[in-house]
Each structure stands twice: as C-alpha cells, then as structure tokens.
Amino acid sequence: MSVVRDRPARLVGRALVRHDAVEKVAGRTRYAADFGLPGMLKAALKRADLPHARLLRVDTSAAEAVPGVASILTAKDVPENTVWVDVPGQTFQVGALKARANVLADGVVRYHGEPIAIVAAETEDAALAAVELIDVDYEELAVVTDPRAALEDGAPAVHEEGNLLASWQLHEGDVDAAFGGAHAVVDQSYETQFVDHAYLEPEAGVAWLDSGDVITVRAATQVIEHFRDLARILCVPDNRVRVIAPYVGGGFGGKEDMTVEPFLALVVQRTGRPVRMIWSRSESLLAREKRHPMKLRYRTACDAEGRLVAQDIVIVADGGAYALLSALVLLYATTCAQGPYACPNVRIDARVAYTNHTPASAMRGFGAMQVALGYEGQMDLLAAELGLDPLELRRRNFVERGDTLAVGQRLDTHVALPELADRVEAALGPKPAPSTPERRVGRGVACNLQPYGRCVWLNDWASAWVGFELDGTLVVRIGVPDIGGGQASSLVQVAGEVLGVDPADIVIHIGDSALTPLTGTTTATRQLYMSGNAVLQAAGELREELRPLASELLETEPDDVQFADGGVRSGGRHLPFRDLIGAAAKREVPWHRLSIFRAPGGEAWRSDASWRGRVFPDFTYGCHAVDLEVDSETGHVEVLRYVAAHDVGRAINPQSVEGQIEGAVVMGLGYALSERVVYEDGVNLTGTFAQYLIPTAVEAPEIEPIVVESGEGLGPFSARGIGEPPVGAVAPAVAGALADALGRRLTILPFTPERVAEA
Amino acid sequence: MTLELVVNGRRFREPVEPHVTLLHFLRDKAGATDVKYGCGEGVCGACTVLLDGVAVNACSVLAVQAEGARVETVAGLGENGSLHPLQQELVERGAVQCGFCTPGVVLGSLEAVRLGLAGDRPTIRRSLAGNLCRCTGYGKIVDAVEAYRDRQGHAS
C-alpha cells in the first residue's frame, strides 16, 4: 500500500523548527542528571587503579564506616555478574557474536578504570570519601597493549580463552594472480587511534523502585532495550525492569553499551531506595568505551587505465579488555574495507584482539570509518603513480547500482557517487594561494560508503503507535531515544505529513520501555529508517481506517477524501479531526494504530571466507573535499574550506540533515588532527578536556554541506540515513590535502602539529 | 557557613560547605538544572552563568565567592515565557541539536555581543571558543549569533 499520493509535501522536506529545540534553548529539558527524587542516594564507583592485576583483597570495612554510607556492593553481591553481550536491542540470538563482560571486576581487573565496587551514600561527598577508603590489594599482571603483540604466542592472556576476540575472513577472486598481472601496485600501512565520543553530557541516571516492584532506570542511553540485560543481571523477570531515556545530551555510540544503568539498578534492588549516579568527565574519559584503533595494511593493484584489479587488506584492531561490540565493528570494517570502488579480487584478513586497554566499542562510523583512511589513501597513491587527478581515478572505479561488493552484497539502490563528485568539484573552485610564502596549501578529496540500518540477519523491527485524542490532536508513542539528531521531531514531521496534522498539534512520547512501543536502538544510522517507517506505516494505516467514515461524513467517494489542514477535506467541505474522531468514537471506528515495521531479513555471515551474501539493508554514499593551509615549521594546520556532499535519498528536514553533516565533519576533523586517548603501558593518561582536544569553534572551518536527494532510499519518503556517513571521509580527505601540501603522506592518526612538522 | 544570593530574581539563603562550587549549589540547592555539568574544569562552558552580569564557568567558582551576588542562568532569560531574540535565532537556524551545550552557548554569546566581541565570523568563532559543542560543528551557532548581532545593530 502506498501511503503517500503524488502531491506537494506539506511537512516533509521543510526545515521545520524542532519542538525539542525550543525547550532546550530555554533550559527546560530535563536530561538524565537533571532529575531527582526525594531521599535519593548518590552512588559512585571504585575503579581499578591498574590496567591488569589480580584482586587479592577488596576491603570495604573502612568505607562502610563513613557516615552516610548506605550500601557497598562488590562482584559477590551481583546476582548475575556476567553480562552476555549480544547485539543490544531486540535481536534474535546470534551465537557467533556473543561475548562476556563483568558488571563488577571479579578476581581480575583487565583495564585501568574497570569498576570494582559501587558505593551508595546519603551525599555525594560521603560516597566519594568512601570510594577513597576502599582498600584493594593488587597483584600486578603482565600488560599487553599492542593488538598485534597480543595475538602472538606467549603474549600475556587478557582472557583465559586467548586474545583473539573475533576474526572475519574474505577472499573473492584470485588476488595473487591479479597482483602478478597488475600495471601498478601500492603497498601502505595506516594506523588509527583510540578516540572518545566526548559528548557534552557525561553518563548519568536516576533509578527507583516503582509500583509493581518494577525497577525503573531513567538514564542517558541510546538503548532502552537494555532493560532485558538489567533483568538478567538482577535475576528478575524482564517485565520488572523499565528503562526510560530522556532527551540525551549526545550519544555517538558511547551510550549504546550500558554505562550507569546496572550500577543504579543494583543499588535499588539492594536498598529499595532511589539513587542517582553521575560520572565525572575524567571518569568518562578514563573508562567508558572508545573507538577501535586499527592497524591497516593495504596492497592495492590497478590496470593501466587505473581500474582496480586487486585489494589485499589486513586489519588488526584493538578491542580493549572486553568484547562488547568488537565483532560487529570489525564486520563493518571488513565489509566496507574495499571502499565504494569496484574490485574483482579482494582478500581481507581482519582480526580484533583483546588488550589491557579500555574496551573499544561503538562510535559513529563503527569500523567503516577507520578503513576509509586506508582505501582512500590507496586511491591517492595510485593516482599519483599513474599521474591522474585523484578524483578522476576514483571516478573510474566507483561502484554502481547492480555491482556486488566482495562480501557478496549487491547494491540495489542508486549510487550517486559521480554526481556527488561533480557537485564537490564544482563547489571547490581554484585552490587558494598560501597566505604567507612559508605556508603551503593542500587539497584533498575522499569518498566513502556507510551502511544504514543493522545487519539484515538481526531481523530488525520497529513499532510505533499513532493515535488521535478526542479533541483532534495527535499523539505518537514510540520507544525512540532522541540523542540530539532530531530523531523525535523527524517522526512528528512524518506523522503530520501523512495525516495532515500541524506539528503544533502533535505530541510525541518517546524512550520508555514500559509505555512506548519498542522501536529499537538509536544506533547504526537506523532510527529514521526504522522508526520512520514504523510511524509512516502506523499513520498510513490509521488514515485508511478513518477514510470510509470520512467519506461517509463528507458525502463523497473514499478516494476523494484528503487528510489536510487538521481534518478531512473533499472539495470545499472540511471536517476538523475533532468532529471526525468524535464520530469515530461513537461508531467504534478505531482512531489509533499500533504498527510494526520489519526490515528485510537474511542469512547470517558465519565468518568463513567462502560466505557470500547481503550484510546491510543499504548504504549512504559521500564525497568530501578540503582545502587546508600548513605551516611546515610549526606543523599547524588550518582548514580553509570544507565541502561535503551526500545523497540522503530525501531530506525529511534539510536543516537537520545539514546539522548531521556539519557536526560529523567537525568530529572527523578532531579525529584527523587532534583527538587521541593516550595510554602508557595500559594506564590511561587522558583525564580532562584540557588534554583531550575536541575542535572548538575556532578550529572548525566554514563547511558547505551539499544535500543531494536521489529519491532512492529505504527510509520513509525514500530517505537514507545520515547520522554516521559524513564522519568517515574526513580524515582521508585531510590526509590527502596534507600530502598535497607537504609532498609526503602521513599515515598515523591523528595528524598532530608534531607529526606534521616532522613530515 | 550561610550563603545568600539571588538566582534569576529569587533570593536564596542556604548553609553551604566551603568547597562546594557555584555549579553544585545552583543545581542541587537552587534547582537551576539548566546549568549543566560538562567537564568540571572550566573548559567546556556548559555551566556558563552570568555572575553580576559577567559570564563565568560556574564549576570554577566557589559558591561562597558568589555571596551577595546576582546570578542569571538561561532559564532567567526571555520575558513572559517567550524566548530571548538570541534564543529564537538559535532555534530557527538549527543551532540546537542535543542541546546540552546550549544554555552555556546562549549566555556566552550574549556576553560576546554585549561586549562588542562578535564582529565578523572569525571573531564570533573566537568568542565561542570557551563553549564546546560536539553536535553542530558550530556553523549554525555562528549563523545565529551573527543574525542576533545584526538585529541588535538595527535596534540600537
């Protein structure tokens, strides 16, 4: 059923003001830490002082004597201390991707900052004082911090089962033969670093025991479906745990795994009292999951025309001390490692190792970002080898609709790369001259592909409830966590579009695992695609249920009824929704609808080299270009200009799309130029924002987002996801521009002034 | 010790420990949860408030230093429930995403405009350097401050 007829869009495609923006700018939004209950305890964590050690003794007696301390919990107090990490959200069991982590360290700590004990006290001061008094005797163990070293025989074992966390292998065609007959070959290694999400809102939450013995956790999270993980930890039925996600102060993947939730829920279960936990910034930088560093080796061959004939790729990723989402991150890296370029012969050996670093997990770009430094670096090197313009070489290799990636996934929808490249080239104009003779200007381009939506074999689904009130206003209920990307307001636009309701007359209730229909995680650039389709479907079905009644009341044919202007219309007659819904209530015609949207499914990849098939629903493509100026003496890099083009299928809210692109570009520039979590033998030395340098408004350049709407995508109104895609192309574009300016390629991120000056 | 100060026109008289920051006092004792904790070290600017009219990071001021002072937070802006013109510009230009930095951005840039530190776009960017934002890439915030500054110019 097509729910959208051909007519001018009323709300979709317009830069409508987001309802949440008004509340946020007035300071009225109650984020996780802004909420409280009378008599609530304040909780804090005792964290490991060492990156790898046996816990000989954890003595809490002195801490318990601190006035005001209500409860201290260690591993033995946790009903089920082992968390089985599946993929968060509503998945079926995927055996190959299961891994374990501990709620509280049990016998061994494996990374600096690993939680050992929870203290709950009447005041924050008492909780922090008690944490200081927890006495831990450690027996230091050998530390392994390099993922390659971790995979060698005799390396210190982070886990008894060995340090290989996950591995994906792929071999399509005959790579060795293709290298033999190649016109040109480039062979280069690249390295990416540990990166922090650095959202402005540190991890926080409040939990309490609600009626029905339901432990309720209101926390900053991207995943309300963690109520199930909490139930396992607490050993209570799933329906006795509720997770509420208020508007979140930034996520970027860092609030995809649980943060404060298990600790809060455990204190509630133990004490029966409400409790709040807020992580400090240094705690967040110290111990919350990071982006996977990857060591990449690319051997790439092309023919005389510059067409790729073979890619031989080795990826070794640092997964840190626990598995979390490493296996999936590596899968994304493997699938996307060839880039948006056709290549008949591809061999990929991808492994992720345990080390004694902070666990690595989800972050915007999710593995597909790290490999872009490699595949785009190779395109630049080949272009130089052949004397071709870098963008021209890329044009000769772009994948097209109907092509099949090495993994076996056929590209079914429009691939806008040629158009994106043209648009970027047209926007650039001539390369600027250096501002002083000592400086050099460089230009770089990079393209990328990023999936939107989860792996098809996770059988993803999303549900939404759309209904009228008797006064004709509209309500949307949906379990979407809004992490700042306009997730909720886009759904208001979709519902309003389908039903002809002004956004001012729509209220959306979000992010409550007990009261809003589950719609899955705000991760994987899936939310507009999934929850958008769920709302589209629910609103469309509701409209069709009301249509016969509307046609009767308007005395017209059903097909002549339009849903517009806050009511139903036929010719000159208009009936407001208040009257239509009043009639529906009397006539027992439903005036609300719960619908489930199911993404296409598929067979699971079992990590053998011969598996071929569909991995993702679809991809979003991008082309970026940057002009920058380098002071080769100081290594200072100034970004002069940035152009970023993406095909978003259809922009539901063009302003929100631009916001995603601009924000991702600046995040990517931080990754490229300044951001790095620094460790020394596993000890995390990066504890403040004065050390971890995200770009300020001064470092951020003027950005020109180019939004292309091909009209093809799997989301509502043919939208594609845009949350993650724009972050991937930034670092390789910067690398290309630096190589253009310096005549030498930097391959180890980030490109700090020291490294640039030494280049 | 007892601290007396005025927050958004409301007078508070509260016992306070000497080590408590103004940020903690505002959030926990004065109910001003619109003042955000982002880093606690005076870098991110999420806790920006006006202390006797001057923008400060509330995390880097002790509560007792605000004795007798007049504190304004973002919730105190605007009249009769309507938004301040700068807030309006931020909303209309899409400069608010997750919104966590926004209260600090509003107060920091208001002061920049008032002090004449919001000239061309690079100048506006410099004046925003004390307010970190991880979502927007800053461009739309600069747009909003620029538009507000122009409105002020026409008004005066």
In total, how many beta strands of chain A?
A: 32
- CATH fold-type name of the largest domain in chain B: Ubiquitin-like (UB roll)
Strand content of chain B: 5-15%
Mean pLDDT of chain A: 95
Q: What is the helix tally of chain B?
A: 5
Q: Could you write a compact summary of the structure shown?
A:
The complex is a heterodimer of chains A (759) and B (156). By secondary structure, chain A is of the alpha+beta class.
Structural overview:
Chain A folds into three domains: 32-141 and 203-278, Aldehyde oxidase/xanthine dehydrogenase, a/b hammerhead (Aldehyde Oxidoreductase, domain 3), CATH 3.90.1170.50; 290-455 and 604-758, Aldehyde oxidase/xanthine dehydrogenase, molybdopterin binding domain (Aldehyde Oxidoreductase, domain 4, 2-Layer Sandwich), CATH 3.30.365.10; 461-598, Aldehyde oxidase/xanthine dehydrogenase, molybdopterin binding domain (Aldehyde Oxidoreductase, domain 4, 2-Layer Sandwich), CATH 3.30.365. Chain A is 26% helix and 26% strand. Chain A is built from 18 helices and 32 strands. In chain A, α10 runs parallel beside α17 (730-742). Mean pLDDT of chain A is 95; it is low at 1-8 and 87-97. Chain B has 156 residues and is of the alpha+beta class. Chain B has two domains: 2-73, Beta-grasp domain (Ubiquitin-like (UB roll), Roll); 85-155, DNA polymerase, domain 1 (Orthogonal Bundle), CATH 1.10.150. Chain B is 34% helix and 15% strand. Chain B has a five-stranded mixed beta sheet, with helices on both faces. The model of chain B has no long low-confidence stretch (mean pLDDT 95). Chains A and B meet through α1 and α16 of A and α2, α3, α4 and α5 of B.
